[in-house]
Design a protein that fits this description.
single chain; five-stranded mixed sheet; 4 helices; Aminopeptidase; alpha+beta; about 150 residues
Length: about 150
Protein backbone atom coordinates (compact mmCIF):
# COMPACT_ATOMS: atom_id res chain seq x y z
CA UNK A 1 0.00 0.00 0.00
CA UNK A 2 1.34 3.42 -0.94
CA UNK A 3 1.95 5.92 1.86
CA UNK A 4 -0.21 9.00 2.25
CA UNK A 5 1.80 12.24 2.48
CA UNK A 6 0.45 15.52 3.79
CA UNK A 7 2.48 18.55 2.75
CA UNK A 8 2.15 22.23 1.98
CA UNK A 9 1.13 23.01 -1.57
CA UNK A 10 3.54 24.46 -4.10
CA UNK A 11 2.73 26.62 -7.11
CA UNK A 12 3.27 23.58 -9.36
CA UNK A 13 0.28 21.91 -7.63
CA UNK A 14 -2.26 24.55 -8.58
CA UNK A 15 -3.71 22.79 -11.64
CA UNK A 16 -4.44 19.65 -9.60
CA UNK A 17 -5.88 21.73 -6.78
CA UNK A 18 -8.12 23.56 -9.23
CA UNK A 19 -9.53 20.18 -10.31
CA UNK A 20 -10.29 19.33 -6.69
CA UNK A 21 -12.10 22.65 -6.29
CA UNK A 22 -14.23 21.72 -9.31
CA UNK A 23 -15.41 18.66 -7.37
CA UNK A 24 -16.06 20.69 -4.23
CA UNK A 25 -17.98 23.45 -5.95
CA UNK A 26 -20.16 20.91 -7.76
CA UNK A 27 -21.87 20.19 -4.41
CA UNK A 28 -21.95 23.76 -3.12
CA UNK A 29 -25.10 25.70 -3.80
CA UNK A 30 -23.62 29.15 -3.12
CA UNK A 31 -20.55 28.93 -5.37
CA UNK A 32 -19.95 28.16 -9.00
CA UNK A 33 -16.70 26.92 -10.46
CA UNK A 34 -14.56 29.35 -12.45
CA UNK A 35 -11.10 27.92 -13.12
CA UNK A 36 -9.47 31.32 -13.65
CA UNK A 37 -10.77 32.71 -10.37
CA UNK A 38 -10.00 29.56 -8.42
CA UNK A 39 -6.43 29.46 -9.79
CA UNK A 40 -5.94 33.09 -8.85
CA UNK A 41 -7.18 32.43 -5.32
CA UNK A 42 -4.90 29.42 -4.92
CA UNK A 43 -1.91 31.43 -6.16
CA UNK A 44 -2.68 34.15 -3.63
CA UNK A 45 -2.94 31.58 -0.81
CA UNK A 46 0.46 30.11 -1.76
CA UNK A 47 2.07 33.56 -1.55
CA UNK A 48 1.21 34.51 2.04
CA UNK A 49 2.57 33.73 5.51
CA UNK A 50 -0.83 33.93 7.21
CA UNK A 51 -2.42 31.28 4.97
CA UNK A 52 -1.71 27.65 4.17
CA UNK A 53 -2.80 25.02 1.70
CA UNK A 54 -2.22 21.42 2.70
CA UNK A 55 -2.43 18.67 0.16
CA UNK A 56 -2.76 14.92 0.49
CA UNK A 57 -0.60 12.99 -1.93
CA UNK A 58 -0.59 9.26 -2.57
CA UNK A 59 1.16 7.38 -5.37
CA UNK A 60 2.27 10.75 -6.83
CA UNK A 61 -1.36 11.89 -7.11
CA UNK A 62 -2.86 14.86 -5.29
CA UNK A 63 -6.01 13.35 -3.79
CA UNK A 64 -7.12 16.00 -1.29
CA UNK A 65 -6.61 19.51 -0.05
CA UNK A 66 -7.63 22.04 2.57
CA UNK A 67 -6.86 25.69 3.16
CA UNK A 68 -6.57 27.82 6.26
CA UNK A 69 -6.41 31.56 6.80
CA UNK A 70 -5.50 33.34 10.02
CA UNK A 71 -8.00 35.92 11.25
CA UNK A 72 -7.85 38.20 14.26
CA UNK A 73 -10.76 37.50 16.57
CA UNK A 74 -11.88 40.05 19.11
CA UNK A 75 -13.95 37.38 20.90
CA UNK A 76 -10.85 35.20 21.27
CA UNK A 77 -8.46 38.08 21.84
CA UNK A 78 -6.12 36.48 19.32
CA UNK A 79 -6.07 34.38 16.19
CA UNK A 80 -8.74 32.11 14.81
CA UNK A 81 -8.25 29.95 11.74
CA UNK A 82 -10.78 30.00 8.93
CA UNK A 83 -10.76 26.54 7.35
CA UNK A 84 -11.89 26.39 3.74
CA UNK A 85 -11.85 24.14 0.74
CA UNK A 86 -11.67 20.80 2.52
CA UNK A 87 -12.05 18.30 -0.31
CA UNK A 88 -10.92 14.75 -1.01
CA UNK A 89 -11.17 13.25 -4.48
CA UNK A 90 -14.33 11.17 -4.65
CA UNK A 91 -12.43 7.93 -5.27
CA UNK A 92 -10.38 8.38 -2.07
CA UNK A 93 -13.09 9.39 0.41
CA UNK A 94 -13.68 7.35 3.54
CA UNK A 95 -10.01 6.38 3.88
CA UNK A 96 -8.85 8.90 6.49
CA UNK A 97 -7.49 11.48 4.04
CA UNK A 98 -9.73 14.31 5.28
CA UNK A 99 -8.86 13.47 8.87
CA UNK A 100 -5.15 13.78 8.10
CA UNK A 101 -5.68 17.10 6.33
CA UNK A 102 -7.59 18.56 9.29
CA UNK A 103 -4.89 17.28 11.65
CA UNK A 104 -2.24 19.13 9.61
CA UNK A 105 -4.30 22.34 9.81
CA UNK A 106 -4.73 21.95 13.56
CA UNK A 107 -0.98 21.47 14.02
CA UNK A 108 -0.21 24.49 11.83
CA UNK A 109 -2.79 26.53 13.74
CA UNK A 110 -1.29 25.45 17.06
CA UNK A 111 2.09 26.78 15.97
CA UNK A 112 0.39 30.08 15.08
CA UNK A 113 -1.29 30.18 18.53
CA UNK A 114 -4.80 29.81 17.15
CA UNK A 115 -7.47 29.51 19.84
CA UNK A 116 -10.44 28.70 17.59
CA UNK A 117 -10.96 26.95 14.26
CA UNK A 118 -14.00 27.83 12.19
CA UNK A 119 -15.46 26.84 8.87
CA UNK A 120 -18.51 27.17 6.68
CA UNK A 121 -20.18 24.07 5.31
CA UNK A 122 -23.03 23.71 2.86
CA UNK A 123 -26.06 22.73 4.92
CA UNK A 124 -27.15 20.22 2.26
CA UNK A 125 -23.78 18.39 2.34
CA UNK A 126 -24.81 15.64 4.77
CA UNK A 127 -21.61 13.64 4.26
CA UNK A 128 -19.46 16.69 4.99
CA UNK A 129 -21.49 17.69 8.03
CA UNK A 130 -21.25 14.14 9.37
CA UNK A 131 -17.49 14.20 8.83
CA UNK A 132 -17.13 17.44 10.82
CA UNK A 133 -19.41 16.22 13.60
CA UNK A 134 -17.29 13.04 13.89
CA UNK A 135 -14.27 15.31 14.40
CA UNK A 136 -16.00 17.27 17.17
CA UNK A 137 -16.85 20.40 15.19
CA UNK A 138 -19.95 22.06 16.62
CA UNK A 139 -22.64 24.17 15.01
CA UNK A 140 -23.05 27.70 16.37
CA UNK A 141 -25.96 30.09 16.45
CA UNK A 142 -24.22 32.26 13.86
CA UNK A 143 -25.22 32.32 10.22
CA UNK A 144 -23.11 33.41 7.28
CA UNK A 145 -24.14 36.50 5.36
CA UNK A 146 -22.39 37.77 2.27
CA UNK A 147 -22.51 40.69 -0.09
CA UNK A 148 -20.67 40.90 -3.40
CA UNK A 149 -18.32 43.83 -3.83
CA UNK A 150 -19.35 46.44 -6.34
CA UNK A 151 -15.69 46.94 -7.34
CA UNK A 152 -15.12 43.54 -8.96
Amino acid sequence: MKTLYIRKARPADIEDLTSLLRQLFSIEEDFSFDAVRQRRGLEMLCDRNDTVIFIAEKANLIIGMCTGQLLLSTSEGGFSLLVEDVVVDISWRGQGVGTQLLKALEEWGGKKRVSRFQLLADRSNEAGLGFYKKHKWQATQLICLQKKSSTT
